[in-house]
Structure formats: structure tokens, C-alpha cells
Write a structure and sequence with these properties.
The complex is a heterodimer of chains A (130) and B (102). Chain A has 130 residues and is α+β, with helices and mostly antiparallel strands. Chain A has 2 helices and 6 strands. In chain A, the strands form 3 sheets. Chain A has a two-stranded antiparallel ribbon. In chain A, strands 2-3 form a two-stranded antiparallel ribbon. A two-stranded antiparallel ribbon of chain A has the order 5-6. In chain A, a hairpin with an 8-residue loop joins strand 2 and strand 3. By secondary structure, chain B is mainly alpha-helical. Classes of the chains: A alpha+beta (130), B mainly alpha (102).
């Protein structure tokens, strides 16, 4: 049973990582118009396992994308400086939506793996019923 | 006839210690390996069930990590399936022996 348990734990960690990724993406999209907002990114790292030979996926600390904030020209805005510019956020909707789609595909792939592991285990137990 | 039934009774009593050594109730004469294996398997099984029950309680109350909850429940479901299959096999073997003509 331990190899099936390991497979399930790894799949679970993958699902968790993709769900966290989606959470960060939705935060970025929600803040697309917030002045001074830097886009957040999360790195995935491999967590060496304590027991068994399978390493799990771990989500690292949230990092900020330090690229330049876009300058928006709007003299009527309360934060505008003397030239009428204020800094928006550096979130690009196209990039975020593409990232969200990738996260969904990875999540579905992990779900498929989970179902397959479960089916294999049940099939093995079925052998005893004959 | 009498000699044959006596001979059969002797054969059955000769088989009795072999059956006892393989049974799962204490004082095994076949050595510690089978008994310890069974104890460990039963221990793991109860651990899995307890863990999934804990997660289910936390889930009812409020914020439970849904992935960990699903993982614990699936593992407990598979563990129960395993134990039931093993139990069925043991009971079937026992009934097979009971059915043997005297």
C-alpha cells in the first residue's frame, strides 16, 4: 500500500500547489487597477521527502515582480504628480489569464492521476474477490 | 470401520498444531513474524481511520484544507476495502475447512 499512498500524497501536493497558484492569479487580476501594485508570483520547489523515495511539490514564498509600473496619464487623479502621471500596477491581464488556464490544465492532469491511482488500487483489491 | 475412523481421528489431531500455528489468536508457534505483521497492519489501519475522522471533524467545524481532507478520506476508504477483502478470504477458508466431511 505504501507506493499507492506515496502516489496519492504527491498528487495531493500538486493539486494544492496549483490551487495556490490560482489564488495568487486571482489576486493579481483583482488588483489590476490598483495604483502601485506589483504583480505577485510564487515559485514551486521540490520538497525532499521525509520517508519513502517520492519528493513532493512545495509552494515557496510569494515574490513580487519588480518590473516597472506602468505610468498612466490622468491629471484628475488624486495621486497624479505635477505632469499628470500616476503609477498603476504592472499586472497584464493577458498574461494572468493565460497563467490561469495553465493552472487549470495542470490541476485537471493531477486529478486524472489521482483517479487512476484509486482505480488501480481498487482493481488490485478486486483480485481478492474472485 | 472402527480402525479407519480411529486412523482418521489420529490424522486430524496431527493436523491440529499446524492450524493453530497459522491462526491469528495468541501463542503462535510459527514464530513472531506473521503475528507482528498482522498487528502492525491492524495498527496502521486504525491510524488511517482515526486520521480521516479527525479531518472530517475539522471539516464540519470550519476551515479544513480540502485537499488533505479528500486525501485522508480516500486512503481510509481504500484501507477499509483492503481489510474487508482480507477478512472475506479468511472467513472463506474457515468455512471451507468446516465443510470437510468427517
Amino acid at each position: 500500500m505504501s507506493m499507492f499512498d506515496d502516489a496519492m500524497s504527491v498528487t495531493m501536493s500538486g493539486l494544492k500547489a496549483q490551487a495556490t497558484r490560482l489564488r495568487v492569479i486571482t489576486e493579481n487580476i483583482a488588483n489590476v487597477d490598483t495604483p502601485g501594485f506589483h504583480r505577485k508570483m510564487i515559485p514551486f520547489t521540490v520538497e525532499p521527502s521525509k520517508s519513502g523515495l517520492i519528493d513532493q511539490v512545495e509552494v515557496g514564498d510569494v515574490e513580487l515582480d519588480r518590473s516597472e509600473l506602468v505610468e498612466i496619464h490622468d491629471p484628475g487623479h488624486p495621486l497624479a504628480d505635477e505632469n499628470g502621471y500616476y503609477q498603476g500596477s504592472n499586472v497584464s491581464l493577458i498574461i494572468e489569464i493565460a497563467d490561469a488556464r495553465e493552472a487549470q490544465r495542470s490541476y485537471e492532469a493531477n486529478l486524472k492521476m489521482y483517479e487512476q491511482t484509486k482505480q488501480m488500487t481498487s482493481g488490485l483489491m478486486d483480485l481478492l474477490r474472485r | 470401520m472402527d480402525v479407519r475412523s480411529l486412523y482418521a481421528a489420529q490424522q486430524y489431531s496431527a493436523l491440529k498444531p499446524a492450524f493453530e500455528a497459522e491462526s491469528l489468536a495468541g501463542e503462535a508457534t510459527s514464530g513472531p513474524s506473521l503475528q507482528d505483521g498482522v498487528k502492525e497492519a491492524v495498527g496502521n489501519f486504525t491510524d488511517v481511520l482515526n486520521k480521516s475522522e479527525e479531518f472530517a471533524e475539522i471539516g464540519f467545524k470550519g476551515e479544513a484544507d480540502p485537499h488533505a481532507l479528500v486525501e485522508a478520506l480516500t486512503k481510509s476508504e481504500l484501507a477499509v476495502e483492503t481489510v474487508v477483502a482480507v477478512r472475506n478470504k479468511v472467513v472463506e477458508a474457515y468455512q471451507e475447512i468446516l465443510r470437510m466431511p468427517v
